[in-house]
């Protein structure tokens, strides 16, 4: 079956496309960054376009026998979602509407949606782990936009028989175990790439946003899920829909929490070094602690995390950072900076 993967050149999307390919599906990727992120495409059809372009989407459906959609294309950074909310609603809600409408027009009735734990907002520590039925109180436009799309998907099922699984990721981390793909950002904001930027000398110190949370070491606690485990959840969700499963929303995470400092110490342990750390104020929209109850994923999808622990997450991330692909990306970026500086 050919599966349309929106955002399939991004971090999670590239791992999903790879996982689909390895399970006998034919991924068809559409992503604004497909050409620039060609390194993430390991042999499948990859189209550079915007999901908000309805004519382009129709052409993709017409040129390929799309049997299902995995929809990951979205704006996802916490900080900008607070300062640029309209941009997030445009990309995440309007973009999703275009994808859904393309499904309706072209007779595609199965969609797996990349949602987020941010739909819950702040959950009181006494109520952790976070369950799917908990109230939805997102604190950022990122979380609000994803929750809006989940509601849109439920309405589309009622009106157009488009069944969906919304996977509420917690914190995607790590890289593919074979080291062929991983997370690449020129200016990293996520935890592990930010630590790596210090190791590379791109940053003088590791900056931690907040050390006054009500946690064991004062730093925020998150559910860090291995990106390869997250990718496998999409395969299970696809199988579920192929077998006639009903529209639902499911948590996808490690099922336990680890603090920012714990992940940092795992890096230091595996590398045998100590990093320079500086603490600063909390970021707007950040919450102290959250981790998932993943029992519903096991019950409904037959999925459970296998390598979502700090050791494997850091090990596979370091394997990616030592790969030729990553080194070429980094050197190309650093050379660009050097040229720009010289020009000035």
Q: What does it look like?
A:
There is one protein chain. Helix 1 crosses helix 7 and helix 8 (260-271) crosses helix 10. The longest helix is centred in the first third of the chain and has 22 residues, at 85-106. 42% of the residues lie in helices and 17% in strands. The chain is globular and about 55 Å long. The strands form four sheets. Strands 3-2-1-4-5-6-11 form a seven-stranded parallel beta sheet, with helices on both faces. A two-stranded parallel sheet has the order 7-10. Strands 8-13 form a two-stranded parallel ribbon. The chain is built from eleven helices and 13 strands. By secondary structure, it is of the alpha/beta class. The protein has helices at 11-22, 54-63, 78-83, 85-106, 141-160, 191-199, 227-242, 260-271, 295-301, 310-321, 324-343; strands at residues 2-6, 26-31, 45-48, 66-71, 110-116, 163-169, 171-173, 206-209, 221-222, 224-226, 248-252, 258-259, 277-280. The protein has one domain (2-343): NAD(P)-binding Rossmann-like Domain (Rossmann fold).
């Amino acid at each position: 079956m050919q599966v349309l993967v929106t955002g399939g050149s991004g971090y999670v999307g590239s791992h999903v496309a790879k996982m689909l390919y390895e399970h006998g599906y034919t991924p068809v990727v559409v992503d604004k960054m497909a050409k620039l992120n060609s390194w993430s495409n390991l042999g499948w059809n990859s189209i550079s376009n915007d999901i908000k372009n309805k004519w382009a989407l129709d052409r993709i459906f017409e040129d390929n026998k799309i049997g299902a959609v995995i929809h990951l294309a979205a704006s996802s950074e916490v900080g900008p979602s607070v300062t640029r909310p309209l941009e997030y609603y445009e990309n995440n809600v309007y973009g999703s509407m275009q994808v859904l409408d393309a499904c309706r027009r072209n007779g595609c009735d199965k969609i797996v949606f990349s949602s987020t734990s941010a739909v819950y907002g702040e959950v009181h520590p006494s109520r952790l782990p976070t369950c799917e039925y908990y109230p939805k109180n997102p604190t950022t436009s990122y979380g609000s936009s994803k929750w809006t799309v989940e509601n849109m998907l439920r309405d589309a099922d009622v009106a157009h028989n488009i069944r969906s699984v919304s996977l509420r990721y917690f914190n995607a981390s790590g890289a593919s175990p074979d080291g062929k793909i991983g997370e690449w950002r020129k200016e990293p904001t996520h935890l592990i790439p930010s630590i790596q930027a210090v190791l590379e000398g791109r940053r003088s110190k590791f900056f931690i946003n907040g050390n006054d949370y009500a946690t064991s070491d004062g730093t925020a606690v998150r559910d860090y899920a291995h990106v390869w485990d997250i990718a496998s959840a999409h395969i299970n969700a696809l199988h579920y829909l192929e077998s006639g499963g009903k529209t639902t929303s499911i948590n996808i995470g490690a099922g336990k929490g680890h603090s920012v400092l714990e992940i940092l110490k795992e890096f230091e342990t595996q590398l045998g070094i100590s990093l320079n750390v500086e603490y600063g104020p909390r970021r707007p929209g950040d919450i102290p602690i959250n981790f998932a109850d993943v029992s519903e994923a096991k019950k409904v999808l037959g999925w459970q995390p296998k390598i979502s622990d700090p050791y494997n997450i850091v090990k596979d991330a370091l394997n990616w950072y030592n790969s030729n692909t990553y080194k070429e990306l980094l050197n190309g970026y650093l050379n660009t900076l050097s040229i720009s500086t010289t020009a000035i």
